[in-house]
Design a protein that fits this description.
Number of strands: 8
Distance between the termini: 43 Å
Largest sheet: 4 strands, antiparallel
Structural class: alpha+beta
Order of helices and strands: HHEEEEEEHEEHHHHHH
Radius of gyration: 18 Å
Length: 199
């Protein structure tokens, strides 16, 4: 469904970290490009083998991104309110996605289709710059994450993640978090015990 100004408040706040956006730009350019989509727990948002249609900002809820290897789901991203998620390579290159994205809990996203987003970027230098800065931001985050998978011990990775997103342990099943953090489920349980001792 179409978004209202109130719907996109959090998204506009997120974007304003990168550039100044006027209310006029929000109303006339951004708002018409955004759709509000709602998903129930376990609904599939993006399907592997299909071209990613949307760039998504999570207004409320949790999504996970994963690929399937030998029947195992390998999770590469878990995102909560206030974060962007999509099968980016598929979205930008218009080729079939390698990933599934599904809802870990009931989730509302603000979504922009590829053509709508291109139109937003083409509308002004300011918004084109915004697009570049947001893309850089997500690439840096991805790089940092890759680095932590290589350089941090599982324990360091777990503690730094829980420190950043304390509420996520309550919201996301343990097996998903273990897969995402690349930690064996039994080791994850032991680490979880450590955090309880800490409090």
């Amino acid at each position: 469904m179409n978004a209202t100004l109130t719907d996109i408040d959090d998204f506009v706040t997120f974007l304003r970290q990168f550039v100044t956006i006027s209310l006029e730009e929000v109303k006339t350019i951004l708002l018409p490009a955004i759709q509000v989509r709602e998903f129930n727990k376990r609904d599939i948002v993006t399907r592997a083998g299909e071209v990613e249609a949307f760039m998504n900002f999570i207004k409320k809820g949790t999504l996970r991104k994963y690929y399937v290897q030998d029947k195992d789901e390998i999770i590469v991203q878990i995102s909560i309110d206030g974060h962007l998620i999509s099968s980016q390579e598929s979205f930008y290159t218009r080729t079939p996605s390698e990933y599934f994205i599904d809802a870990v809990e009931p989730t509302t996203v603000l979504s922009m289709q590829y053509d709508a987003l291109e139109k937003v970027f083409a509308s002004s230098h300011n918004l084109e710059r915004l697009g570049r800065l947001v893309t850089e931001h997500t690439m840096v985050l991805k790089d940092k994450w890759q680095f932590s998978l290589i350089r941090q011990t599982p324990r360091e990775r777990f503690l730094s993640f829980v420190d950043k997103y304390p509420e996520i342990l309550q919201r996301v099943p343990q097996k998903y978090l273990a897969s995402y953090l690349n930690i064996k489920p039994e080791t994850f349980s032991r680490f979880k015990h450590l955090t309880r001792q800490k409090h």
